[in-house]
Amino acid sequence: MPWVTALLSNMHYRTEDEAYGRLVRVLMATMPPGIETFRIISMVEGAPTRELVLPRASLERTIAVSGGGTEILADARTDQTDVTPVPLLVNTPNYDWSIRPVYNQSFFDPNQPYLYQLLAGLNGGVNVTSQFRVEGEAQVNIVSNFGQLLPSDSQLPHVRSDQDLYYEHGKNGIAELQASYTSTLAPGVYALARGGILESMFDGVGGEVLWRPEGERWALGATLYEAWQRGFDRLLDLQPYHVTTGHVSLYYQSPWYGLDFEVDAGRYLAGDSGATFSITRRFASGVEIGAFATFTNVPFSQFGEGAFDKGFIIRIPMDFMVPLDSQSELNMNIRPVTRDGGQMLQPEMLLYDELRRTDYGELQDNADSLVHP
To answer: First CA to last CA across the chain, in angstroms?
Structure first.
């Protein structure tokens, strides 16, 4: 059966199904009639993550009668790809850069119930090879009213409760400067190693592994990092504190009402151990709202105000707000009070988030975009 293979690196559309749908329209319009099958391989960070094989006749029939994506998937074959090398989509090295707004906030401080900071972030990266990347972000303060918070009285290492010192003394600084290497160890098994300035408050070196069984809506991940606390000016100096931190994470993308569940168990930045439980609901617009709570071996009395870490999760895709296709989104974890217990590293992106668009569950839930991209 004659077929054509297309490599897809989706850096534009929020769902992979929409990218599939637009690509197959191009293939149907440009490929000769003798091509009966379209084989599409999704590429993420230079690694093949999913293979979708679509019969041309099924596509043409379903589109002609305005059918649904589930009808196409019934005739399609989908699987996570093996580790066989595939040709590169672009030459390396290649470069990218962007400017984006960055927003920080703090609620419910006794002196000032609402504090805010707006910065301009200039970020860029170099893909040295298809799997090795160096990237960074510098931030410049635009407006801020931080500097009025009460000094932290935390009994734990001050891994987050001194946030106002970073916001005040590090208004203009380096938010991220790291190197990373991504690889596919086996079908459905991915690995990432990274090191450098991982976030505004911590440098680190370490990595993570993610296993996504094919045909399942759950995934299992693990992270392990050695982290060093950064200076308050957010430049290159370090403070004496360092810690080994890591978690085992279980993800489940349910088929019910857009509900997703996540459990992260392990050692946190302050040296405490426990688990974080999260639940979110994603709506058809792409907006995601949820809540999280963390319980560790730190007694409530030692944790301080709030007793344990908890808050709300809000993710708003930019293409929901502007008439443009984009993968950018506004991420906010809103805590009633920020303490030091139950705090995790916050690198730019975890493997699960990076690969989420090519999940089995995402493919099923957004199948109609194959027909109506």
So the answer is: 27
